[in-house]
Amino acid sequence: MPRVALIAHDDEKPVVVSLAREYESVLSTFDLVGTGTTGERITEETGLAVERKESGPIGGDTQIGAEVVEGDIDGIVFLRDPLTAQPHEPDITALLRLCDVHDVPMATTRTSAEYLLDGLADDAGHEG
Ligand SMILES: O=C(CO)COP(=O)(O)O
């Protein structure tokens, strides 16, 4: 079962919730992990179970980065706010870099997230 991380900055949380609703049947077949507030919102507003790390600004992105290093993550949806500076920008940059290093696919927009989730679902179907 693919393990997928869901992360969204505050102005993108409505988008990640709407994506999670639209993809609920696909996502329910994945093992989901998220940063603290994103995970909470998705858990509250959909029927999906999301393992919650710390909130991004206090280390959640870094916890997910550690899982990337361990080879535990198959894909990441990371809807970033492109217009607002984040206090934990170094952590965000590190997560992007680790995905590059370990060739873990990351989608940073809704449309790319749809392609990523469709692709992971397809792969999982072929494996199963
Ligand atoms: O800041 C984040 C990602 O960089 C997201 O953290 P939260 O999901 O806790 O808001």
From TrEMBL:
Catalytic reaction annotation: dihydroxyacetone phosphate = methylglyoxal + phosphate
Active site: D61 (proton donor/acceptor)
InterPro entries per record: Methylgl_synth (IPR004363), Methylglyoxal_synth_AS (IPR018148), MGS-like_dom (IPR011607), MGS-like_dom_sf (IPR036914)
Source organism superkingdom: Archaea
Enzyme class at the top of the EC tree: lyase
Listed EC numbers: 4.2.3.3
Alphabetic keyword roster: Lyase, Pyrimidine biosynthesis
Pfam families in the cross-refs: MGS
Keyword Lyase tagged: yes
Residue spans crossing the bilayer: none
BP-aspect Gene Ontology terms: methylglyoxal biosynthetic process; pyrimidine nucleotide biosynthetic process
Classification lineage: Archaea, Methanobacteriati, Methanobacteriota, Stenosarchaea group, Halobacteria
Example of a GO MF term: methylglyoxal synthase activity
Function: Catalyzes the formation of methylglyoxal from dihydroxyacetone phosphate.
Name of the protein described by the UniProt record: Methylglyoxal synthase
